[in-house]
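Notes from hallway chat w/ T.B., transcribed later so I don't forget. T.B. wanted the structure written out for a chain they're using in a teaching module, and asked if we could keep both sequence and C-alpha cells in one place. Agreed to drop them here.
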Amino acid sequence: MYFDTHAHYDSRAFRADRDKVISTLPDRGVELVVCPAENVDSARACVKLADQYPFVYAAVGVHPHEAKGVPPGWLASLQALSFHPKVVAIGEIGLDYHYDHSPRDVQREVFRAQLDLAGRLDKKVIVHDREAHRDCLEAVRAYPNVTGVYHCYSGGVEDAKTLVMLGWSLSFTGAVTFQNARRSLEVIEWLPMDRIMIETDAPYLAPEPYRGKRNDSSYVYRVAEVIAQVKGLPLEEVAAVTTENGKRFFGIGEESVR
C-alpha cells in the first residue's frame, strides 16, 4: 500500500468522476492521500474531501500562482481552517519563478506570511519551489522553527543536503521516470530513506508510461519503483518506508485512518 502525499483532488480535472476515482483508491493500492490547497476556496474544498473520505487528509495554503489574488482576510481564513482535525499542513506554498503568474515580491510576501502562520500553529509546510531555489532557501532559513517537505523536488544534491541538515524532507513525483530526470536520481541516490516521500501531484505529471494522461494516486507506485531501483531495495520496502515517513511527517496515527 502507498501514501500519495500530494494530490489535487479538488481540481476541475476530476469534476466528472471525482468520487469514483477517490473511493476506489484503497482497492488500487493507495492507503492514504493528502490533498493540498491552491487558494482559500481550494482549501475549503480539500477539507470537505477530507471529511468525506477517511483516508484523505488536507493541507491549506495559497500557491505562489495565486498570491496576487489573495482576498481580504485570507490568512485568518487559512488559520481557521487549519484547526480542522484532518488538516495536517500548511500548503501548497512557496515560490514559482518559471511562470511568474504572481509578481515575485508578492509571492515572497505571501510565502513568508504562511511560514510565519505555520510557526505559530506548529504545523508542517508543503513547499513549491520552481526555479526559485535561492529565495526559497532564504525564506526557509528565516523560520528555523518551521520544517516541512519540498514537494516535487527539483533541486540538486547540495541544496538537498542543506535541507536535510535543517530537518526537512523531500518528495518526488512521476517526473523521476522521465528521461531528463538525472539530477533527481542523483538526489534520490544520496538522500537518506527516512527523508523521502512519494507523490503524484495529480492531476499533473503522470509518470511513464502514462505521461500525457490525467494523473491519479494509483500511479504513485511508479515513483516507488524508481526509488527502489536507485536504492537497490525491494519495492515492498520502499512502499512501507515512504508510507511510514508520510504518517510520521504529517502526524497521522493508525487510529486516525480507521
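Follow-up for T.B.: Strands lie at 2-4, 30-36, 56-60, 87-96, 124-130, 148-150, 169-172, 196-198. Might be a good example for the class.
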